[in-house]
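Let us work through a complete example step by step.
Step 1: write down the sequence.
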Amino acid sequence: MSAHASAAGGPLLEIRGLHISSPSAPLVRGIDLAVHRGESVGIVGESGSGKSLTCRSALGIVPDPLRVSADRLAFDGQDLLTLSERRWRSVRGSRISAVFQDPASYLNPSLTVGRQLAEVLRIKLGRRRGAARREAVALLDGLGLRDPARVATRYPHELSGGMLQRVLIALAIAEEPDLLIADEPTTALDATVQAEVLDVIADLRRERGLALLFVSHDLAVVAQVCERVLVMRHGVVVEEGRTADVLAAPRHPYTRALLDAHDEYGLDRLRAHVPSAREVVHV
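Step 2: predict the structure and record it as tokens.
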């Protein structure tokens, strides 16, 4: 469970009237989004819908020359729009963390994964070198990696995609954040490994009280880990609600098209994966 205290009453992450634009066109238009402590919220949509940019605004990593404006962009009551880069570093990683689609591109190929994880623990949390190494192995063990001590000695190119994604998750949770943003974390994985990584994320939510903002183009994946979903298209939210309600009675044609794409998967099976209220962790 995270040691950070939450501001009383309000959402952990609150976005109102978010706009992101390039010099030539609007990319995200008027997004409203709230994530409460312990809640899992999914954003689903096709490539270019603005879902990843929306999440990157909450991390302060929207690339230049894109412009970000919002009526409110706040985390635990703190206005993110006014943060300097130095103050962002006290939020990013420690309070809000993220995992992305291609873990290998976020890891140093010249260092073992155990050393990279231990360095985060040593530099960010002040662990002594030996303690950091032991804690790094323990984190890998907690994410279900077999023989974690051996995995810690491996370089990124020596590990499979599923193992790398677990290493990246270990890095993301090392500082015990309150919110984990998962941006297409299973897209490049085969179905079996994808299911294992989703189970890891679900277990972390239960064990640590993590809030989760999960981004995917695949409604079936979102349905497995999120109790609430926003459907985005062309930079706007076209539908939102409890995942079970959206699956049972989609209102927008685009949402219905996403569901039609899962006919072979089986809609009943898709609904069966929706987290129940009993699985929601509120702290």
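Step 3: interpret the result. The chain is about 35% helix and 20% strand.
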